[in-house]
Amino acid sequence: MEYGYSARVGRTLEKTGCSAAAVRGDLLDRAVEQLLETLPEQIGGLQHLTAETLGHFVDGLLTRMRVRGGVCHPMVENYAREMGKTYELYRQRQPLISYFGRESRLPRFLTDEPQPDVFDSFVTGQQTTWYSDWAERALSLPADAQVTNAIYRHTCRILTEAGLLVQYTKGARSVWGLQPSVLDVTAQVTTLTCRGCGAVICLPTDRARKWNGQACMAFRCRGRYAVVANQRESYYRNVYLSGAVQRIFTHEHTGLLGRATREEVEEAFAQGSRPDAPNLLTCTPTLEMGIDIGDLSAVMACSVPPTTANYLQRIGRAGRASGNANVLVMATTSPHDLYFFEQPLEMMAGPVEPPGCFLDAPDMLERQYIAYCMDTWAAGPGAETTLPNRVQHMLARARRGEYPTDFLKYQEAERDQLIDRFLALFANDLKPETRDRLRAFALSDEPGQRLRAALRAVEAERARLRQLRERLRDRIARVNQDPALYTDPEALKADLEEDRYLLLRLIYRIDRQYPLNLFTDEGIIPNYAFPEGGVTLEALIYGLKTAEPEENSEPGRRPGTEAHKWVRPASQAITELAPFNTFYAEGRHVEVDQIETGGKEQRSDENWHFCPECSYCQLEAEVANHDTCPACGSGGWADIGQIRRALRMRTVSARQAVGGSRVNESQDEREIERYEVVDLIAIQQENYRGGFANLEVPFGYEYLSEVTLRQFNFGLRGTGGQQFRIAGQTVSEMGFIVCPDCGKVFRDQHKWAEDADAGGKAHRSYCRHLQAQDKTPLDLNLYRELTSEALRVQLPPVGSDPDKRLPTFKACLELALRRQFRGRPNHIILRDYRDPVGQGLQRQYLVLFDTVPGGTGYLKGLGTTEEFMKGLELAAETLRSCSCRSRPGADGCYRCL
């Protein structure tokens, strides 16, 4: 690439005059000698040719082929052999090849096809081409297409016989490319420039002497090359010649990496002992390295951070060893970034707001209490011998009445003392009602029930996976017993084995998981990455050519495969891990194509009934009134089309061939699908706990101790088709077309029918749905659910410009929260909420929702009249005192809003 296809693109070694490649001189001379004997015999009028002019012609032709990419590297041999079929450059066929996009330059070999799609043709008709022009100028010939065509055809034959070219023939046409082994690279180079057009070329010094005074290779140029006596100084030439060039080795460093991988990356980056040790890390904004990164000297932020505190945190890792750092910040086209691009000092030297600390959160404290009990028990005598290190061992001990039974006996016997000591840790930081709730929780059977439920769930999942594994084993045995019954038994067995190994891997991951990690994932003990429950993506990469030896492979690991498990918070997973979206991690990208439904026997999807006018929704099995909406009285509730099947997201999966899984430079931006996502907020009047109202404005708010936010994903956006109404808006009816048994997802009903006609090849091989009598797929939607505290604020009339006034009011309310809590309470989100009041009218609200399960108590404290109004007054004072008021036309700035 550096001396061929890309030799003249960018600041290459050849363009900067550091080194150059050329065909070996001895081979070229022998080929020219042979041509000089045979060419005049074959074609009349060439008796005037000399070795010097013919040599320059041939050398120019071979140089042209080299820089156009016509070098027969093994990765492009099939591409040349197939006359430029671009699919031969795809990663599926050549996993190691650099990416060629739709607009990329393609390697151009030489062909005798008169009108090729991709390659360069020397066959000339009425129109002058580079090849006809070069032959006429280099060999001093009159314009004659037949003569130049014959010259090139004979030249290619002689050069092929001499071993300089490789010839591929398909039908009546041939393709020629340079033999890679005949190219030499040297740093002894000389630069020449054309005295006519100014074109510059860098050649080996011995070759440059022969090119001096010869015809320029530029199309239709009549100039001649001359040696450049004093080469101009070049920054990149000096850099390359200094030997200080360091190759970039990148690696991801995020929380998605497993611990072993993350520690290996950290050590390699810090020490740099390996030649390929990573020297550029792509990180999440927090850069939570947890290590002494010593020589880290530069940080580049791909967007402007939200605040000065974020900015200082992100750049603070650089320059610790020397005290000097290079910090680059890329400003995107967002208004936020453009503002700070114009006012950089406001970001670099602005005020630092301290982060909030959320202690008074009952649901979180319940998890903390269980973790505290485990710590206390583990510190006692004998615990180190009974605490298992794997889920597999824990389940075995649970069946024998050991762990966690012994821990639960300890917790139940000591719970009075445990809760007293636990609450004493918080002094006066907890409200009385929070203390009462925690005490009631500790003295109940709830901690034990949660642990036992987690064990039952993981045991059931292991049993389900084992059942599927046995089903596959039986199918493989049937194929081996009578292969004649199948069209391609070997391909079928390969698919069955692929799925069986995936199931083995999933079972292995469950068995090897650390028990405390299981309890964290199940929300029993704290998860410091995200308080809400997570969604798991199980991914299998197959088709790896290099695999570990069998004796070094982990159990459940098939040679040539790579299994991954990634967990994302449900709030992000509802779109990030939705079907057809592409997820990026650990240098891979996979497309989600399967949803865990529980199988036909244990399906976990549900029928939900949605109101067309308000946010009310209810499980169909619990609906008592089928005529009107229980919340707003809408008659549209009775429409059967308001009932939809939905599944709570917990586990999804993806399978991807290795060639298509590698993250590469094919796109500047990640592929992200857009979905029809609707937030539904369920408010029960019995949870009303006081508020304030001003009927004259009108304006008011109320504190709600328990509100449920349900976020539904109704499928891909922009798919067209029929729509239905929900919460006053219309969304697509499409949803996701899902197999009830294996959970494979299809783009639409047409794709499902196509695959069914083809025998269900897209389904997982353990799927039995298409063998059933009812082959109907599920039309499924996805959702997540979170219950916490909230504050509902009724908005005053916004006048004739709601699109401008509503965002301004939201911004002011967020400012009030920052000023009231002296920091950014990022766990509090704002959502629009509309309440129908009849005759097509609606009350408009903003709901402040606490995303920490159970709430942190922040909104309860804000729910009193004094505290809420105090926050608004602080916001108003900030707006009045901000310097942006003095700027003409300014409507707030990032310093205030």
Provide an overview of this structure.
The protein is an alpha+beta fold and 897 residues long. It has 5 domains: 20-242, no CATH class; 250-348, P-loop containing nucleotide triphosphate hydrolases (Rossmann fold), CATH 3.40.50.300; 385-528, no CATH class; 530-682 and 709-785, no CATH class; 786-886, no CATH class. Strands 19, 20, 21, 23, 24, 25, 28, 29, 30, 31 and 32 form an 11-stranded mixed β-sheet that branches. It has a 4-stranded mixed β-sheet with strand order 3-2-5-4. Strands 15-14-22-18 form a 4-stranded mixed β-sheet. A hairpin with a 4-residue loop joins strand 24 and strand 25. Helix 16 (415-424) runs antiparallel to helix 17. The longest helix is centred in the middle third of the chain and has 36 residues, at 446-481. Residues 546-553 have low confidence and may be disordered.
The number of distinct structural domains comes to: 5
What proportion of the residues is helical, as a percent range? 25-40%
Sheet of most strands: 11 strands, mixed
Q: Kindly, what is the distance between the CA atoms of the first and last residues, rounded to a whole number of angstroms?
A: 51 Å
* DSSP strand tally: 32
Number of helices: 26
Shape: globular
Based on CA atoms alone, the radius of gyration comes out at 35 Å
**Regions with pLDDT < 50 over 5+ consecutive residues?**
546-553
User: SS-based structural class?
Assistant: alpha+beta
Average pLDDT for all residues: 86
Strand percentage = 15-25%
